[in-house]
Every structure is written in C-alpha cells, then in structure tokens.
Amino acid sequence: QVQLVESGGGSVQSGGSLRLSCAASDNGYSMAWFRQAPGKGREGVATLDQEGDTSYADSVKGRFTVSQDNAKNTLYLQMIGLKPEDTAIYYCAAAQARWLDFPMDRYEYQYWGQGTQVTVSS
User: Fold this and answer.
1) How far, in Å, CA of 33 to CA of 47, rounded?
2) Quick one: pLDDT at residue 99?
3) What mean pLDDT value characterizes the chain?
C-alpha cells in the first residue's frame, strides 16, 4: 500500500504560480491530481500513467503541467496563471493499474493523500 503526502499549497493572487509536490512511499503506480472546491465534487485535474502519458482537465490545459521525478518517487503539479476558480483542496492519487479506462475518474484510484489547500484571490 503506497503512502502519499502532498505539499506546496498556499495562498496566491490571481495570475500567480504554485508547484505542488506529492511524495510517494513506492513507485510503479499511475498517478493523478484531483481537486475539490467547497460544495463541489472531487474532479480530476491532471493524470500521468505508467507509460508516461498525460491528460488534463479542459479548465487547466495550457496552465498546469504534471510531471514525475522517478528517482525521488515524487509527483509534481506546476500551476501558472492561477485563477480564483482554481481555489480548492488538491489531492494526489495513485492507481495500481498500468492503464486506466477513465483516468479522470476518481474511482480508478485506490490511494489518496491528505490534500493541500490552494487559495487564489482576485
């Protein structure tokens, strides 16, 4: 069972940048970032499977980049051009499957971090 610990959240002004990190206790998982805003469901933001393929929510394309440092077992989410609607708790997730039918579906992932808060003010 992999343990996931997120870090890097904070408060920024609109247009600012942040980089989130997710330290994993093991490798060999398909990974993803999800977020949950107050009163809303948890939505997929960016995914990175074991083949190195990525996918992004339409709302973050061109602004967010997911990457991984395999030597450090760490997943990153570089976020630029942040908007108030990006405000949410961001969660790191891991799936045992090498290929996912629906990588943006939270139910594909078995392991979750505790989340890190991102707040963007206008």
Assistant:
1) 6
2) 86
3) 96
Residue 40 token pair = 């809303």
Residues 6+ apart with CB under 8 A from 65: 46, 77, 78
pLDDT category of residue 98 using cuts at 50, 70 and 90: confident
Residue 33 is encoded by which pair of tokens? Answer: 């970032």
CB contact set of 94 (below 8 Å; sequence gap of 6+): 2, 4, 24, 29, 30, 31, 32, 109, 110, 111, 112
User: How many CA atoms does the CB half-sphere of 5 hold within 13 Å?
Assistant: 5
**End-to-end Cα separation, the chain, in angstroms:** 40
pLDDT digits (tens, 9 = 90+) for 48-84: 999 999 999 999 999 999 999 999 999 999 999 999 9
Q: Which residue has the tokens 């991102």?
A: 118
Query: What does the block give as tokens for 39?
Result: 């009163």
Which residue, among 96, 93, 95, has the nearest Cα to 6 in the 3D structure? Answer: 93
Give me 36's structure tokens.
Answer: 């949950």
